[in-house]
Amino acid sequence: MTDLIERPVSTSDGDNVDHGTETSHHHDHHGPTGIMKWLTSTDHKVIGLSYTVTSLIMMIIGGAFAEIIRAQLVSPTSNLVSFSQYNELFTMHGSVMIYLFVGPFAFAGLANYLIPIQIGAPDMAFPRLNAFSYWLYLTGSITMLSGFLVGGGAANFGWVGYAPLSSAANSPGTGADLWICALLLTGFSAIFSGVNLVATIFYLRAPGMTLFRMPIFTWNMLVTGILILLAFPVLTAGLIMLYCDRHFGTHIYTVQGGGVPLLWQHIFWFWGHPEVYILALPFFGIVTEIFPVFSKKPVFGYRGMVFATLTIAALSLGVWAHHMFTTGAVLLPFFSIMSLLIAVPTGIKMFNWIGTMWGGKVHYSTAMLMSMGFLFTFLIGGITGIFLASPPLDFFTHDTYYVVAHFHSVVMALVMGALAGIYFWAPKMTGHMMHEGIGKIQFWFLFIGTQLFTFPLYLVGLHGMPRRMANYPINPSWQTLNEWGSVGAILIGISMVLFLVNVIYSWKKPVVAGDNPWDGHTLEWFTTSPPPSHNFLSLPPIHSERPTWDYNHPDHLAIEHNHKKQAKKSAKASAASDAS
Amino acid sequence: MEETLSQLESAQESVADRSPRTKKRALALAIAAPLLLGGCELPSFGAFHGVTKTANSTFKLWQGFNVTAIVVGGITLLAMIWAIFAYRAKDKTSIPKQTQYHIPLELTYTIIPIFIVIGLFAATVVVENQVVDEPAPNATINVTAFQWGWKFTYPGHKAVVVGQTTQSPIMVMPENKNVLINLRSTDVIHGFYVPEFNFSRYAQPGLLNTFTFNANKTGMFDAQCTQLCGLYHTLMYFRVNVVSQAKFDAWLRAKDASTTQQEVIDANSAIALENNAGVAVNPTKSNGDGAN
Ligand code: HEM
Ligand SMILES: [Cu+2]
Ligand SMILES: [Cu+2]
Asked: What's the rounded Cα separation, in Å, for the pair A114 and B211?
């Protein structure tokens, strides 16, 4: 930190040649290389990449489970997998995707890599804790998946592990214990990531980087970090109690011993709903970085965007029981209005994203297509979610495929956001471009596949098909819709194969990216690709949330309030401080 | 908007006094008022029209939400498509006007949704109060869920209906009567879901859940457990048979007569045994699943 403040803030042009030589210089002198570097590194960029790659592997594993699930469901009486295997598959699919892919990818992978760079810091606040956090995550992931190797199989009580199905009597297997331990490990990993994010963003910002000049991605990660700190400890406590019930004779969640099974649902969802936004906010952040760059405009309604993020986070702490409407044991109107209200700030974000493109010069890069795909898919997922906030409508859709379709519209939008982020930042992380042509084909498979997969599931849910069904022998009329859903899943699978092809292709035939291939706005585009250790040799002056853009386009500063005089004033002000 | 709200409030009051006609009118008003569309014939948007009184109002609420969603979502979608296609860059380098804020516009799309949300909430509360309402029952059925089947008993009667998995036990109930359901579980959480009643509720150990159905159509309706409850969750079926009051009485009398004391004991102990030992009572299998 002191290092950062003492470093002169250069206003000379960021000389590329200099950067290049400096980078190799650093590499020569800095400790181990190769596998040892990976094992011992506390560099946020190495850890960020480890997280990103590991979580993408988890996505592929979770996706493979999903493909088996969809294969099972093409026929009403298929026995590709047995009932117990089916229960394991959807439990592990949901668990791997939620606990091991989406969260770690966003709040630990991309965030780790980008946050210090976006705020002009040399590293995260606690580099060793950061490394520890990754190793906990990797250990947790392996622990969860190893459930398949033990007698009795992996956990099979759904990703929500409802009591008392998750009790020792009802789920005696070791797989269940491994699932609990995995969640404890990855939960602590998340908590440490949260601590690191919040501390880094509050204390390591470069001079001039005020809170309201932070990129929206950084803002969202700050709020995500705070939500992690509020929510995850509750889950951890709940899991420890569950473990005690299973092994140490307590009766916290069992009726027989005077416990209350419903308590688990309260604890789980008190974590679970904020978790929904812990998962979503980072991806909102990703697309909020991408829309402006490929529209060549500042993000529309920057302050409104921040306000919306804060409102969503605040409301998300008071809506958990909308997952429990059908228990008959929660106050319906309160949780209903709180949940409905989340639509308002979410709508603000939606309109701000549209407003960012409006009047811009929209470039259809792969990252931008993925972001547009996110926008559409998230609109569908968001709107169908509003229905579920109304208890009478939730009563007849709860635990049906309607809900499965709703949250897959949302999570598939997040997957598009993830890929948008990869296509956008891979050049920065690797120094090489991803192939745009393959990327666009991948996008179309993913986009069409997602809609083909979710739309029939909404309908089959409304026709009464419950989720977590291995078979549907008495309702063969559900078959056609299920077949379409599976076709969609195949297209999504193909798109993931294309992604791997693209990764390999871009690796084998490298195209040098340069420092700023997209004419980016934020500080990461001011340094080299990949950045040197400790990230910057010089920083531009920071007068807005777009320091790199302001530096490259001093005649095109953001116009506040759509007002000409204002624009001139701010241009003058920044010119003055440039000179000083 | 304020006017609409006060209308809704009065609507709610008249629901409370339970006169069926005002109730119906109030409901229609409540849904029509915020959406201005209650009167016309709307499509089903994929859902069941419902065969109970509350299922019908839930269905109307569903339609109302859909209309709102299509209007709001449609406008958003058009704006989105316009922004994507109309502003496509023609060259690589030109830079548009760097607009960042438009406060009146931003306020508009903050405030209008708040009013829409209030409207949706008001309609929700009206229907919800009706759905969770518990009028004086004309008949009562005790429903007990267990791994992996259902037991239906009729308080004051000997009749027992019990069945597992694809035996698909049948819950018989009279038409046009307030039928009170007492829902319990003996082991894990189950989901009591009758699609055409537009309703589901968890059956939970240690908790009694009560609700009322007033079916307005006779017939046999498929139903099944919706909350994951272990190995044979997939096959935890039941059916609901809605019959006229006369037929119901006749059925109950016959069932009382044919149910032996032994059957009552068996039904109870089968569940109890299953519950205590954690051993499945041979579920009827409909597929070649090897697991047990
Ligand atoms: C290839 C893409 C995907 C396909 C085809 C797919 C398919 C499915 C299906 C069919 C189910 C329902 C299983 C059942 O109820 O019987 C399901 C459940 C689930 N999926 Fe996915 N999914 C995909 C991607 C994702 C992603 C990206 C996430 C999260 C980030 C996710 C999270 C979940 C969760 C949490 C469940 C619930 C599991 C449970 O019921 O316990 N899925 N998925
Ligand atoms: Cu929630
Ligand atoms: Cu079940």
From this structure: 53
Structural domains of chain A, count: 1
Q: Pick from A81, A91, A93 the residue to mutate for probing ligand 1's pocket: most ligand atoms within 8 Å of its CB.
A: A93
The answer to whether the beta carbons of residues A448 and A491 sit under 8 Å apart is yes
- How far is it between the farthest Cα atoms of chain A? 78
CA B89 to chain A, closest CA, distance in angstroms equals 4
The span from the CA of A86 to the CA of A421, in Å, is 33
| pLDDT, one tens digit for every residue, chain A (580 residues) | 333 333 333 333 333 333 333 333 344 445 667 788 778 889 999 999 999 999 999 999 999 999 999 999 999 999 899 999 999 999 999 999 999 999 999 889 999 999 999 999 999 999 999 999 999 999 999 999 999 999 889 999 999 999 999 999 999 989 999 999 999 999 999 999 999 999 999 999 999 999 999 999 999 999 999 999 999 999 999 999 999 999 999 999 999 888 999 999 999 999 999 999 999 999 999 999 999 999 999 999 999 999 999 999 999 999 999 999 999 988 889 999 999 999 999 999 999 999 999 999 999 999 999 999 999 999 999 999 999 999 999 999 999 999 999 999 999 999 999 999 999 999 999 999 999 999 999 999 999 999 999 999 999 999 999 999 999 998 999 999 999 999 999 999 999 999 999 999 999 999 999 999 999 999 999 999 999 989 999 999 999 999 999 999 999 999 876 555 555 555 555 554 444 3
Query: Does a structural domain hold residue A52?
Result: yes
Running DSSP on this structure, what letter comes out for residue A383? H
Identify the domain containing residue A174 by its residue range. Answer: 46-568
A65, A92, A160, A171 from A156: Cα distances, Å: 13, 8, 10, 8
Write out the two tokens for A380: 């569908």
Predicted structure pTM score: 0.88
Decide if A577 is inside a domain.
Answer: no
Nearest CA in chain A to B104: A561
**Does the B139-277 domain belong in CATH 2.60.40.420?**
yes
Pick the residue whose CA is nearest to atom 8 on ligand 1. Answer: A66
Pocket lined around ligand 1, Cβ cut-off 6 Å: A 63, 66, 69-70, 90-91, 93-94, 97-98, 101-102, 158-159, 404, 408, 411, 415, 453, 467-469, 489, 492
> According to CATH, where is 2.60.40.420 located in chain B?
139-277
Which runs of consecutive H residues, i.e. helices, occur in chain B? 2-16, 20-35, 53-86, 103-131, 245-258, 261-277
- Cβ atoms of B188 and B229 within 8 Å: the answer is yes
Closest CA of chain A from B276, distance in Å? 10
Q: A5 lies in a domain?
A: no
**Distant-in-sequence, close-in-space partners of A188: CB < 8 Å, separation ≥ 6:** A133, A136, A236
How far separated are the first and last CA of chain B, in Å rounded? 59
User: Contact B205/A391, CB-based, under 8 Å?
Assistant: no
By the 8 A CB rule, do A35 and A534 touch? no
Q: Please tell me the distance between residue A459's alpha carbon and the centre of ligand 3 in angstroms.
A: 21
CATH number, residue A419: 1.20.210.10
To the nearest whole Å, the CA of B145 is away from the closest chain A CA by 14
- Establish if A6 belongs to a structural domain: no
Q: Concatenated DSSP letters for B26-39?
A: HHHHHHHHHHS-TT
